[in-house]
Each structure stands twice: as structure tokens, then as C-alpha cells.
Amino acid sequence: AFRALPDPAAHVFETSQGDPLGALLTRATPGDIATAALSAEGPLAGLPIGIKDNLCTRDLPTTAASRILEGYRSPFDATVVERLRAAGALIVAKTNLDEFAMGSTGQHSAFKPTLHPLSPTHSPGGSSSGSAAAVAAGWLPAALGSDTGGSLRQPAATCGLVGFKPTYGRVSRHGLIAFASSLDHIGWLTRSVADAALLFDVLAGPDPRDPSALRDAPLRASAQPTPRIPALRLGLLPALIEDTPIHPAISRAFSALIEGLRSAGATLPDLSPAHLELAGPAYTAISSAEAASNLARYEGLRFGQRASGPSGAPSTVEALATHSRSALLGAEVQRRLLLGHSLLSGQTTLAHAQNARAHIRKNLDEALTHVDALLTPTTPDTAPRRDAPDDPEHHRDRFTLPANLAGLPAISLPLGHDADGLPFGLQLIGRRGHDAHLLAIARALE
Ligand code: GLN
């Protein structure tokens, strides 16, 4: 479980001094943390935790790393933040991200790029870049993030951490600044599966303020027995993997793991759920269309900052909104909104994408009736260089997207390192609603 820190506030402040990684957007003051620590009671009492800055907090600003929300302060805490505080955790910092969680590198923050703790020329992965960098650097034992197409699992893999995304609806999204509502999940980064399970037990459960939240009470993850390796049935997805160029160190470590599990008595059948190759295009279309709809509210009138005009005030309300959005939203966000709006004004592409998504969901659920979980590498490569070109077709997200489209629980565990010492991960995708069971399987493989 979480190792107790003698003085959490001092530890975070001393170790993250000056924030050389660009991981933190705001920090609570040592005085505020010390005051909260005095009355902290519960299963996470005194635990310092970082919160991705697209989750609303009452006491610290919430910006989604966008100029359009600069200085915004939420009048309420996200449900997950409220539950953390009730369990005694200390909210010590808001962490950096790609603007509105659109990206996989942490380089698309409007405020500053995030650096990999092991190599300043590399990205820690993203979009939960600051959460991953801060936990990997040892500043924090855990941090919350969001995962729309892989934003927790992917940086977990490239930083050598555990990254968990629960079943869609298992954790309330109330207070998460939406990117693509049907794909957005809140989850967390930790250094062990046991820690991920402790957070699950505090954070999962029904919430009347999130209409998509599941209504039943979840099983407790930390109470699940760890399964024995010979009892495990884990499905492999050779078609998905053979289709993708994979870093040789990742291929080798993945094959060695499979061999090791087989010789320890586990059953690992090859499965071939159809249409996984459509996950990338389906994700691109659905996430952009939902983003266009969700971000329509930031027009600088009712929501968001208003940009001051270069030459006098714009003449119409529409011109005022266009001006604020053009000036205050980053290029990557604007690219996705343009794509989303054009998809929403057609119909066919989006309908094809929804259809592909329905097939992927059904086929993955079916595959998971034969096995306890599916096993893939988390990413095809280790951390990208910070100056690497963008990946608009989501090649780096290939293995993580299907679980978002299907709403299935998924976790990334450390698997190994390349010759430069950069980490990579192993992904497990579990059965719908079987989050506690997935965490128990992950513990057996850790
Ligand atoms: N990398 C993906 C994207 O850019 C996923 C991001 C996420 O999960 N928030 O959309």
C-alpha cells in the first residue's frame, strides 16, 4: 500500500522545487496543505495527490492547459476530488496536460511542455503528461488523469508506471472538463497495482450527478484474492499486433512474457475479434465530433476568456466569439474542432464510425467471454522525442483506443526498458464491469 510520508507537504515541495519537468500547473501552498493534513482522516489520510488540470477543484484554478480557461476557478470539486478529500487525501497540485487532453505527448499545453523525468529530450507521453512525470519523478505517490484514447495508459507505459482506466461509468465524470464524453474516463497513475486498487475502492461507485455513472455498487478491488498464474486465461490479439511496426525491445519482452506465462501453466489463446483495424478512424471521427460539440461553449461570452481585439472591438457577437476562439485555443485543438464540425455537418462518415464502434464493442465483449482479459503491449514504441512529428492518425494509440471505444476497463503495467533505459508497458483489457477482477489479474502479473 501507499508508503506513509513523514511530512507530505514538505516532501512534495522539496522534491519538485522549481518544477524542472514542467509537470505542475499550480500547487497548493504549504500552509494550506498543512492545514488540510491536520484534519485528514480516512483510508488515504495524509496522502499527497496530483490532479490533472482538466478536473475541477474549488481551491485551485482549473485550466485544461488552455488560455481560454486561464484563471478559471470552479465553484465545485469534481466528484473524484470530493471523494479523495473525504478519504483524507491532500490535493497538492494540478498537473500539466495537452490542451483539453488532446494529444499524446504533453507538448500541446498552452503554458509549458512536459519533460520525461529520465530524459529531457523526450516526452513523458500524454495527455496526462504532468501526472505521469510527477509520479515517475517521485514527487507524488499517485495522480489522477483522464483517458479518452489512452491518455493514462500510454504515459504510464512510457514512464514505467501503473495506469488504470476503469469501465465506462464506473467512476463519475462529474467535474471533468469534457473532451469526448462517450470516450472520456477518469483514472489514475500509481507505482503499484495495489495502490491503483486502493484508489479504485475510494473513487468508484454511483453518482447521481453523472447520468452515465453505473448504478450498482462496485466490488472492492483491494479485497480480491490474487489469482494463481495457472488459473489465468489471457487472450492474445495477433492480427492487431502483427499489423503494427513495434520497437524490437517491446516485441522481445512481450514474447518472453507470453512464453513465461505459458510455461507457468497459463492459457493464452490467439483471438481475432473483427474490425479492430477500424479503431483509429472511428476514434478520430467520434472524438473530434464530440469535441466540437463539447467545446462549443467556450466562446468568450458565457464561458471562457474573451480575447482583446487587435483593432477595436469585433462588430458582431459571432465575430467576437470567432476572435476569442482563434486567439485563445491552440492549433491542435482548432484542427480537431474544424474536423469535428465538418463531420457533424455531413452524416455518413460519423454514422460509419458509430457503426464500426458498435462492432468493436460487441466483438471485444464476445472475445472476453473466452478469456479473463486481453493482453497487448501498451504502445508500439517507447517515449517519443519532444521534437517528433505529431501523430494525427493515432498510430501510437493503436493498442489503447479499442478499450475506450468499447468502454472496457484496461490497465498498463511496467514491462521493460529499451537500451537507453526508456520504459515500456504491458496492457490488460478486462471484462466490462469486472474492474476489481482485472486489478487482481494485474497484481498476479506485476
Ligand atoms: N492521444 C489521443 C488523442 O490525441 C488520446 C488522448 C486522450 O486519451 N485524452 O486524442
From TrEMBL:
Gene3D superfamilies: Amidase signature (AS) domain (3.90.1300.10)
Key words of the record: ATP-binding, Ligase, Nucleotide-binding, Protein biosynthesis
Catalytic activity: L-glutamyl-tRNA(Gln) + L-glutamine + ATP + H2O = L-glutaminyl-tRNA(Gln) + L-glutamate + ADP + phosphate + H(+)
Every Amidase domain range: 36-439
Xref: InterPro entries: Amidase (IPR000120), Amidase_CS (IPR020556), Amidase_dom (IPR023631), AS_sf (IPR036928), GatA (IPR004412)
Subunit-level organization: Heterotrimer of A, B and C subunits.
Region (Disordered): 111-130, 375-398
Family listed: Belongs to the amidase family. GatA subfamily.
Active site, renumbered: 52, 127, 151
Pfam family for this entry, one: Amidase
EC number(s) recorded for this UniProt protein: 6.3.5.7
GO MF annotations, alphabetized: glutaminyl-tRNA synthase (glutamine-hydrolyzing) activity
The protein's name in its UniProt record: Glutamyl-tRNA(Gln) amidotransferase subunit A
Function: Allows the formation of correctly charged Gln-tRNA(Gln) through the transamidation of misacylated Glu-tRNA(Gln) in organisms which lack glutaminyl-tRNA synthetase. The reaction takes place in the presence of glutamine and ATP through an activated gamma-phospho-Glu-tRNA(Gln).
Composition bias, Basic and acidic residues: 383-398
Gene name per UniProt: gatA
